[in-house]
Amino acid sequence: MDTEKIISELQYKAVRSSGSGGQNVNKVSSKVVLSFSLPASGALTDEEKALVQTRLSSRLTESQTLVLQCDEDRSQFRNKHLVTQRFLQLIENALKVDKPRKATRIPKAVVKKRLDNKRRQGEIKQSRKKPNY
């Protein structure tokens, strides 16, 4: 994954933000909306695109575009930086290959201990019953 090439393919749009800022919020477009078109990307291989598409399917639009937004800060520059970092982390996690799970056996001592505890609990409950004459 070439981060510089991916960053060059991102589209940013500044929008009026809600939240803190007072009267400033009505004048300044500090919210940043990032969009990344997965099919049009030249930075990702076909295998990487397929992996991202399956892992981030719930976050993609119908046209396979990933849209992220940030309005945490009053500064447009800071919001742009934050949303770019969030995007790169998201793509990095989507491209991470999980290591295969190794099936392990339950040790005999653990099974024996569990069965002993079960038997002991059963004996305690049996001793609570009224005697049968």
TrEMBL record:
Region (Disordered): 102-133
Domain of life: Bacteria
PROSITE patterns, A to Z: RF_PROK_I (PS00745)
Gene Ontology biological process terms, A to Z: rescue of stalled ribosome
Pfam families per UniProt: RF-1
Extent of Basic residues compositional bias: 102-117
Domain Prokaryotic-type class I peptide chain release factors residues, every copy: 16-32
GO molecular function: peptidyl-tRNA hydrolase activity; ribosome binding; translation release factor activity
Entry's family note: Belongs to the prokaryotic/mitochondrial release factor family.
UniProt protein name: Peptide chain release factor 1
Taxonomic placement: Bacteria, Pseudomonadati, Bacteroidota, Flavobacteriia, Flavobacteriales
